[in-house]
Amino acid sequence: MNEETLANFKSRISETDWGFVTNNCNSTANEKFELYESKYQNIYDDCFPLASKTKKNLKFDKPWLLPWLSEACDRKNKSYIEYVKCPTAVNKAKYLKYKRFVAKHIRNAKRKYYESYFKRYSNDGRKQWSMINELLNRKPRRKNNISKLVHKDNTKTT
C-alpha cells in the first residue's frame, strides 16, 4: 500500500453512490449491511490486490535434495494447501500419501549423500569433523584475548 493506491481507494469510496443501500426500503438492516460490505470489499480488492510472494534465490544448503525430489515436495505442499482449503477424506489421503513418499525419499537421499561424503573423505579427518560440526550446528569458538587482569587490590597486570 502506498500513497497513490490509498488516494485511489479514497476517491473511489467517495465517488460511489451508496443510494442503493439506503433507498432499499424493503431490506432489513442485515441485508443493507451485506450490500454495503459487498460493495466496499469489491472496491478494496480492486485497489489493493493481493500480491503473491516469490521465492528468493537463497543459498541452496540441501545438497542431497535432488531436482525431482524438490518437485515432489512442491506437489506435497500443494496437496496440503488443497486439503486445508477442502478437508475431504480424498484430499487427506492424497496429502498423506505424498507426505509419506517425500519423507521416505528425503530420508534415503540424505543417507546416501552423507554416506558418500564420508566415504569420499574417509582419509581426511578435518573434512569429516567439519561436516559433523556443520550437522550439529556447531560454530567455531571465538578466541577471547585477555589484555589485562585486575586483582582484588585493584592492581592491573598486562
Q: How is the biggest beta sheet arranged?
A: 2 strands, antiparallel
Name the average pLDDT: 85
Structural class by helix and strand composition? mainly alpha
The unreliable regions are none
Cα(first) to Cα(last) distance is 59 Å
Helix content: 55-70%
How are strands sequenced across the largest beta sheet?
A: 1-2
Number of helices: 6
Order of helices and strands: HHHHHHEE
Percent of residues in β-strands: under 5%
Overall morphology: flat
Number of strands: 2
Please tell me how large the radius of gyration is: 31 Å
Task: Outline the structure in words.
- The chain is mainly alpha-helical.
- Helix content is 62%, strand content 3%.
- It is built from 6 helices and 2 strands.
- The protein has helices spanning 3-15, 19-22, 29-47, 67-85, 89-120, 125-135; strands spanning 149-150, 156-157.
- It has a two-stranded antiparallel sheet.
- Strand 1 (149-150) and strand 2 (156-157) form a beta hairpin.
- The chain is flat, with a radius of gyration of 31 Å.
- The two termini are 59 Å apart.
- The mean pLDDT is 85.
Which helices and strands, and how do they pair?
Elements: H1 3-15, H2 19-22, H3 29-47, H4 67-85, H5 89-120, H6 125-135, E1 149-150, E2 156-157
Antiparallel strand pairs: 1-2
